[in-house]
Amino acid sequence: MATATGARDPRVETAISHWAPRFISNGVLLADFQEVTRDIARWEDWCSAWSARAAVHEKLGRDALDAGYALTAGEHLSRAGVYYHFAKFLFVHDPGQMRAAHMKAVECRGLALPYLRPPGERVEIAFEDSHFAAILRRPANGSARPPVVIMIPGLDSAKEELEAYELPFLARGMATLLVDGPGQGEAEYRLPIRGDYEVAVTAIVDWIVDRDDLDAKRIGLWGVSLGGYYAPRAAAFEKRIRACISLAGPYDWAEIFDALPDLTREAFRVRSHLPTEQEAREHARSLTLKDAAKKIECPLFLVAGKQDRLVPWQHAERIAAAVKGPVELLVIEDGNHIANNRPYRYRLRSADWMAEQLGLPKS
């Protein structure tokens, strides 16, 4: 819908053109996406519009729960959580509205967890003088101590968005641990983005080691978008990681910073807890694999889309060329950012790859 001047807010156009396949492949129904975005003229209306549609699914979930239909409730509430997440994902210019939507995403996903198949649980992982919020799910009919895949979101994603990514790992016998790390999800208000993400992953691995229901000798690491930088960066230094998957991660964030959409640059500034874009640009220089990639020794699986307009696919090539360990590079010719327009090309394949690395039989 156009504004009074006849043009739609370019920020809305950017959000639609860059992220439509991501919304659909990660749980938003196509009709909902079309209807909600059709009626948004101003970026200022984005969060409220998506929150209103999220509330429809939330009510369905709560009604199902009241009626005793737990499985149905879990599905509706999980979808509501994804919608609330997409209401807030880049809405950093209005912190109050953004955080209200975010807390609804956390609430709905949390309500859904016991009713999912397999069920999940919210856990907290101590980190410095704070903590990370995470979701742990163990595979159905798996071993008493299954291998576990730590799943790291990106700049504007959070644990509430990652179910579509985690399901193939669960189906193959791996537990999943979805973590909001520094600058991400629930941690973004307390802990800023940091380039040395290995510090966070070491705390997560230490937490796994202390549990008796996960196999600490078989830990995989997975990251998406900026998380696709965080994961290999951590694998370079945290040697207890047995295998790593990077989806569309940058080799060097500063190199592409100025070419990123305005919404993305602003989200990076806010989640870095910095007052100016120039300071954010300087901070971006700390997010690099220039000296770290050569320290990666565990098997690495890289995915890139040749049509990626945010992180050029050549960054994956540079990572692959620099690492010392075994590496598999999957470049999807017609793939966009994270190839979310072609999820069938890599999601199952990467889960098969991780299962093999973690010693699970083919299934």
Describe this structure in words.
This protein has 363 residues and is an alpha/beta fold. 43% of the residues lie in helices and 13% in strands. It is built from 13 helices and eight strands. Strands 1-2-4-3-5-6-7-8 form an eight-stranded mixed β-sheet, sandwiched between helices. A hairpin with a 2-residue loop joins strand 1 (120-127) and strand 2 (130-137). Helix 10 (262-271) packs across helix 11 (277-284). The radius of gyration is 19 Å and the shape is globular. The chain starts with 9 loop residues before the first helix and ends in a 6-residue tail after the last helix.
SSE topology sketch:
Elements: H1 10-25, H2 30-38, H3 46-66, H4 70-88, H5 95-112, E1 120-127, E2 130-137, E3 148-152, H6 163-171, E4 175-179, H7 198-209, E5 219-224, H8 227-237, E6 243-247, H9 253-256, H10 262-271, H11 277-284, E7 300-305, H12 314-322, E8 327-332, H13 347-357
Parallel strand pairs: 3-4, 3-5, 5-6, 6-7, 7-8
Antiparallel strand pairs: 1-2, 2-4
Helix pairs in contact: 3-4, 3-5, 4-5, 7-8, 10-11
